[in-house]
Design a protein that fits this description.
- The chain has 91 residues and is mainly alpha-helical.
- The chain has one domain.
- It is 90% helix and 0% strand.
- It has 3 helices and no strands.
- The longest helix is centred in the middle third of the chain and has 29 residues.
- The radius of gyration is 15 Å and the shape is elongated.
- The protein starts with a helix and ends with a helix.
């Protein structure tokens, strides 16, 4: 399904973006480093939940997919917003 391919691509792009923030945070020190690490951990946990949800959706029938797609769309939107919030904290 196209939506699954798009969701996978979206997660891969976010993985790369999270990696960039991680690299950027390596130069932080003290409280800034602690806050950055906490933010990144939260973002990675949220990303892992979305990936798990996506993997479960891949196993579902088409009937189940129709009911669950809005939840996936919402989870991806929330993950994107969490990334944007984290990114703004790093700037």
């Amino acid at each position: 399904m196209q939506i699954l391919i798009a969701a996978d691509k979206n997660i891969e792009e976010l993985d790369a973006s999270i990696a960039e923030l991680t690299k950027k945070s390596e130069s932080y020190q003290d409280d800034a480093k602690v806050k950055a690490d906490q933010t990144l951990d939260s973002l990675r946990n949220q990303r892992a939940r979305v990936r798990d949800d996506l993997d479960e959706l891949k196993k579902m029938s088409l009937e189940g997919w129709g009911e669950t797609r809005p939840a996936l769309d919402h989870a991806l939107d929330e993950l994107q917003r969490a990334y944007e919030t984290a990114k703004s904290a790093f700037d």
